[in-house]
Amino acid sequence: MRAAHLEEVRDSQKDDDRRIALWTRVLGPNKDVSTISLAEWELFIDHRRSGAINARGEPVVEADRRPVSIRTVESNLRCLKAVLTWATRWRSPDGQYLLRDNPVRA
Length: 106
Prior knowledge:
Blueprint: H1 3-27, H2 38-50, H3 70-87
Helix pairs in contact: 2-3
């Protein structure tokens, strides 16, 4: 592999790790993701866009907030949607899907 390609892969993995940390912190480690509501989705958009939470989902004090672009928020949302879509297609050893429906599919 080319060195540039390997660097892209490493950067992508770091981004994925950061986004997983973001969603774990925002939703909580024990969240039943099948119950994600539109209100939670919209609250996340508001908080992330305003800078109230940072890239790892940590709260930011008002004086230190830096608004983020809509593209950044969109990439965070796409990541969650992709993971949940994957869970609707993956079966556990007993044949059950990990997630019956994707609550953020629309």
